[in-house]
Structures are given as C-alpha cells and as structure tokens.
Amino acid sequence: MKIIRASESYDIVVIGGGNAALCSAITAAEAGATVLILEAAPKAYRGGNSRHTRNFRCMHSEPLGPLIESYSEDEYFNDLMKVTNGETDQGLARMVIRQSEECMPWMERHGVRFQPSLSGTLSLARTNAFFLGGGKALINAYYRTAENLGVDVKYDASVTHLEVDDGEVLYLDYIQREQSFRLSPKAVVVASGGFQADTDWLARAWGPAAKNFLIRGTPYNRGVVLDDLLRQGLEQVGDPTQCHAVAIDGRSPKYDGGIVTRLDCVPFSIVVNKDAERFYDEGEDVWPKRYAIWGRLIAAQPEQIGYAIIDAESLELFMPSVFPPIKADTIEDLAIKMDLPAQKLRATVDKFNASCGDTSGFRPTELDGVSTSGLKPPKTNWARPIIEAPFYGYSLRTGVTFTYLGLKVDENAQCSVGNRPVSNLWAAGETMAGSILGQGYLAGFGMTIGTVFGRIAGKEAAKYAN
Amino acid sequence: MLIDTKEEARRQSEICNACRYCEGYCSVFPSLHSNREFSDGDIIQLANLCHNCRGCYYACQYTAPHEFDLNLPAALAEVRQDSWEAFAYPRFVATHFQKNGMAIALATSLCFAALFVLTQWLGRGNGEGFYAFMSHDLMVVIFAPAFVLPLASLIVSLRRYWLAVDGTRIELSHLHDALRAAANMHNLAGGHGEGCNFEDEDRFTQARRVAHQLVLYGFLLCFASTSSGTILHYAFDLSAPYGLFSLPKLLGVPGGLMLTWGAVWLFRLKLKADPNLGSMAARNGEFGFIALLGFVAASGIVLYIVGQTAWMPLALATHLGAVLAFFLLTPYTKMVHGIYRFAALVRDAQRKTDSNSP
Lengths: 466, 358
Ligand SMILES: Cc1cc2nc3c(=O)[nH]c(=O)nc-3n(C[C@H](O)[C@H](O)[C@H](O)COP(=O)(O)OP(=O)(O)OC[C@H]3O[C@@H](n4cnc5c(N)ncnc54)[C@H](O)[C@@H]3O)c2cc1C
Ligand code: SF4
Ligand code: SF4
Known about the structure:
By secondary structure, chain A is of the alpha/beta class. The longest helix of chain B is centred in the middle third of the chain and has 29 residues.
C-alpha cells in the first residue's frame, strides 16, 4: 500500500480515543499545543472501554461532590495493596491516589457531571464518584471540550506503526478508509488501551481456552501499537497472562457487552460445570470481593463454561441482569434446557441440599456463616437448599475486562527504551496501568489512572512540543 | 401495534434495569429500577413520565449499531403515543388526529369557515366591538360545549390511565410534588440542571425547557385572560372590548406573545432534533399541533392589532376558528400530553411515598 504523507502538521498526536487519550489531548491543547486524536473506532463506538465505565475512585479528606465522609490516602493505598497482593509500584500508586482528589474538580470543569452512587452500589458511595449518565456521557463531554479547544479528531483511524529510532519517535503510520498515512508530530501520547480484543494474542498467552472468552469492552483494543512498540524494544511491564476477568452471562455478545452482562447470583446459587459438578465455594465472600476470581475459575473448567442454579426463593436477592434466566419446574427439566446431564445435576443438587443445615440465620447482605457440612467443596455462606420451584439457571463465561501487559513509564508518564527515556513518547491509561499494579484490581482505579496519567502525559508532551 | 411497542419498550427497560447508568437523568429511571418485571401498566407509566429529553440516548453505550439497539426515548415515545390513542374518548377520533398534521389543519379550516359564515350571516348582534359581529350569546352557545365536551372526554381518558397504571388514592402531597416537577420542567433539566439534548446531539441546552415553559405559561396567561373576561362579563357586567390596562389584556397580551414565541421556537427546535429519537409515527401530528398552538396565539395578537379596523371580522373569525379547533381537538392531539404527564408525575409521587414507608 502506498503511504501518503499527511499534509497537516501537529505538535502532538494522541493515539486512542478513550478517557486517557482525551485527558491528555485536553491538557495539551490548553497548554497551547496543536493536537490530533487518532481513534481506531468509528464515531458511534468512540471511547474504548471508557464508554462502559461508571465511576472513578477518588481520595478525599471531606465530603466532595457526591462522595460522602472521607477516604484517606492511606486507606485507599491499603485497599489497593490488599487486592494486588503487594504487586504494586508504591511510589506511582501513591502519586495517583494523591492526585485523584484534584481530578474531580478538573473533570467537572471539563464537562463531566456526577451523580450519587447508583442504586445497588451503596457500598461504593464513599470511595467512588459516579458519572452522571455513565462513561459514554463522560466521553461525550470530553470530546466537546476537546473540539472547542481546537483538537482535531479522526475516527476510523487505526495507528499501525511508530518508528522509534535512537530514543525518538520519528513518525507514525495510520490507516483510515483503507488508505495509509504518515505523520511526523513533535510528540506522541499512546493511550490505546490493552490487547484483550485480540483473542489470538490472548490464546498465545492462555492457551486455546482463551478462544472461548468473551471481551466485555471494545473490540478495538487489539494491542497493535503496544505490540509494535514492544517489538522495538520499549520497556515493558506485566506479563501477558495477567488480565482482569469476571464471570458474566454466557449468552453475552462476544464484544462490548459491558456492565449489563454481569451476574450477581453466584453467592445464592450452586455453580456447576458442564458435567454438572460443583468446583468451588460459591459463598466464600461477599460478591464484590469475589466476582473477579470467578472469571479464572470458569476459565479452568471444561469448555470454559459454568452454570449457576438457584431456586425461586433466591431470585430477587441480586440485581437483575440483561437476559432473563432459564426457568423450569424441575431440576431435571432445567438441566435439559441448559444442556446439562439431568441425572447428574439432580444428584449434585440433592447432595448439596442434604448437606445444608439450619438456615434460620440466612442473611443475604452479610457473611452469615450458613454453610454446608461434609460437602466438598463446601459452601461456607448462604448455603440454603435449592428446593423451591420454579428453578432458574444462568450460564457463565469468562469475560475479560482488560489486560495488564503494557508499557513501562516513569512518574512523568514517559516511555523508555533500554535505560533511557524516549524523548518524545508518553503513555497513559490501560496501556501503562501495569506500571502501577501488576495484578488484581480495585473498582474505579482504571479511570483514576487514566485521568491522572492522561493529564501528566498531556502536560509533559506539550512542554516538550513548545 | 400496541402490543409490539410495549414489548420493545419492555425489552429495553430490562437492559436499563441491569445497567442503571442513567439513573440521575430523570424520574423514569428510579421508577424503572423499582421494578423487576414490567407489566403493561408499568411500561405505560414509564412512557408518560418520559419527557423525551434524550439524555439517556446520547449517554447510552448500547445504541445502534450495537446489537442491543437501545433507543429508550423513541421506544417510550411510541408507547406513549399508542397509550394516548388507546385511552382517548372516543377512540377513533384520536386515531385521526394524533398522527396527522393535515387533519388538524383541515379541522381548523373548517372551524374557521363555520365561524366566518356564522359571523357573516347569523350572529350579528347589536353589541359593541366584537359583539357587533358575533353576539356574546352565540359565542357562548358555540364555545361552552367546545370547552365542556373535551373536558368530559379528558376525564374519561384520565380515568382510563389511572386504572391502567394502578393509581391509588391521591393525596395533597402527591399533587404538590407533581406540580413542582411540572412547574420547572425538572425532567427536562438533565439531572444536573443544564437542560436536555434536543438541539445539537449530546450538547445540553436549556432551549427546549425554556421554549416549553414559554408555551406553558403563555397558555396559562391566555387562559387566565379569557377567564377573567368571562368573570368581568358575568359578575361585573363589564363586556369587551377591554382597554390595554384591563385584566384580560394585561394577562392576554404577554401570554399571547409568549405563546407565539414559544411555539415558533419549539417548532424550530423540533426541526433540528433527530426524528429517530421520537415517535416517527406522530411527528407529523406534533408539528401540526405546535403550528395550531402558535396560530391560536398569533391570530389573537393580530386580532388585538386590527381590532379597530375593517379587518376585524375576518381576524375575529380566524382567531375564534383556531381557538374552537384547538379546544375541540385537545383530547386528540399532543395537547393531551399535559394531563398524562401530570397524572404520571402524581403516580410517581405515590410510588416514592410508597417506597419510603416501611
Ligand atoms: C464493562 C467495563 C466496565 C468498567 N467499569 C469501570 C469503572 O466503573 N471504573 C473504572 O475505573 N474502570 C472501569 N473499567 C475499566 C476502564 O474501562 C479502563 O480502565 C479505562 O477505560 C481505560 O481507559 P483508556 O483510555 O486507557 O482505554 P480505552 O478507554 O479502552 O481507550 C482506548 C482507545 O484506544 C483506541 N485504540 C486502540 N487501538 C488503537 C490503534 N491502533 N489506533 C488508534 N486508536 C486505537 C480504542 O479505540 C479506544 O478508543 C471498566 C471496563 C469495562 C470493560
Ligand atoms: S439508556 Fe443505556 S446507558 Fe442508560 S440506563 Fe439504559 S442501557 Fe444504561
Ligand atoms: S429521554 Fe430523558 S426523560 Fe426520557 S427516559 Fe431518557 S433521560 Fe428520561
């Protein structure tokens, strides 16, 4: 394909069109730079995974906007350390946490609006600020702000290559409408997310099981730029098997199913694999603390599928999800409808029911200790027999949220090759989040990282370009 | 038809119920989230609560080309439209006017012609001013039924609505809440008070909210003007024409100007807005209705201006014709949205009190 030299010239090209990209484009434009955003998705799907988000985690010393009480740096930091098993760059993490507080007013100034914590998410009312209308409303506001600042945006513009030579990006190539273009901006910000939408890449890391994973967010985060840069020796962080994955409704679309495919029924169910056998304690902990491990648990089962079975008693104990459950009057009929071995499922349910004891202490919203006895694996909370017809079932599959393999950056969001910085290359958002946390995840931290590092990258790139 | 639009709105509501991102935009979402399943009545109530501000469309990550194909403003608009037709009395009249601007224009012309004929040959009174051309008694004979019959029809419709949405006994606090929400168009404010997404895709503007309130308050002023005239006529034996500083004029002139201005503004906004986010079927009828509303007001102002000239009889017949058509068509045009909206707000106030009590 012939490469056309683009006639426009920009100080800064931002690769990607999600939260991190927009935060850096806006910051750079406000610092006086001319900025171009190259977004791989068409306009209707702009905004990457950010369009699926609902909140960001924000430190605050007193009530702030919709956030109640306070959330200190140390508490925030400890929450993070708990979920990452210590796989955290403490310096960068603390920096992000500290800067999260000033993010909220910055976001408001640039058009983002907040709302009180959504119904069903009261546990986050103190720590996470919810975007009014969700992530797409945030993205829309940022695009408006950016365009008012004179930032140009090209949609359907997928970056294929950055030429890095002797510690400097010389030019970059992108494809738009089957035509290849070349640009030589003064500086580049990479904010093009992880690689989770490239299931071949996932399969290389995970084995063929990954082909059965569903991708919760955008199909456009295929890691093209990440791969291109890592091949050229840029400093990398994290390993490709680390990803955030949850158990979602097995009937969800392959891509972009987003928040509505989440299933909160597991603690009140028994979960079996396709051989109708249980494989893990469904009641180990409250759901928000456990939902991220179920992605991996399901991934380890044959054909990467699971089935949650509940009875009529439990149907209203969790948030409704996008698809109605499969319903039947007997366990056997339910098994047939869900393609499970009927006698086997009957036996599994009977065995579970027989091991349930006194259920008078059942409390759906707390660890109630109502557990099975003599069952393997046990169910240690909310173990109530499944006896009340009709019976309901949901299929479960692994839904990948994002991957951790990424570009290593310093506190200025700058990338490096060998031991020295690339003079005109910065990275922000998911694509460098591995620099801060290598595993585990804290709800709302992704948007915080993207906002903090997006702003830093924009500022540094503009400083360089001026 | 009716079944299909509700089915589609139900499908979308179930997705919203699993998502909840739009909870802060308007009253529809808190009401939606209080259900797990949606009866037909629930869907009708949601549809009539929706003010078509479109916030939830532009904020939605599931709009086409996504396979979930969310377009809640349009889905609810279609249900709303169908519900107004279904509850109208007599039903067949609504079928003709709700979706048909031409029919509205035709009815208006007929009313005008009829009044023109009446003023020319029948009605000559010996009164002063307007009444020289149409006696007060004749006006009453024509307009009293034109006011009372639609009112009776609206009462039937309201009752049908209330039964469909399982409304309960209305208390003063419910009315108070509903009035407050209607008075400042709370549901067109976008949750953050910055308005709605009607003019320019996802940009929030106050235009529609302000234009609508110009129409609403303009209309109320005009209505108050007519009422005050009636009171002056019967109680104080003071009959038209009234001077500029009389109550009917002090209320009517600003009211007429506001109504005209608001109607023209709404018409233009509607031209700019994406038709795919409203009821496509009713679009034509809605334009017809706004035009009629604007015409009622504008012809009133013209009448005031040419009142002392030879044009007066023509202007009078035009204005009264438009007013007559407006009243007669009230139960069968977009005008009816006012009472359903209000009923929905009252019902929503009931839901909130119910869910707050233990
Ligand atoms: C369903 C879901 C819900 C979530 N909810 C939350 C939440 O509530 N709070 C939270 O903090 N985090 C949440 N996350 C995680 C969050 O989405 C990410 O942490 C965050 O959006 C990352 O932002 P980003 O800008 O780095 O990437 P993205 O928003 O994914 O943006 C990447 C952009 O790069 C573009 N792109 C990719 N490749 C190229 C290329 N070659 N050329 C040009 N452009 C390219 C993409 O089209 C996209 O626009 C959620 C994720 C999912 C999937
Ligand atoms: S309109 Fe879309 S974003 Fe809003 S609640 Fe419904 S599904 Fe969620
Ligand atoms: S269009 Fe506006 S009023 Fe209607 S449901 Fe959506 S946000 Fe609410």
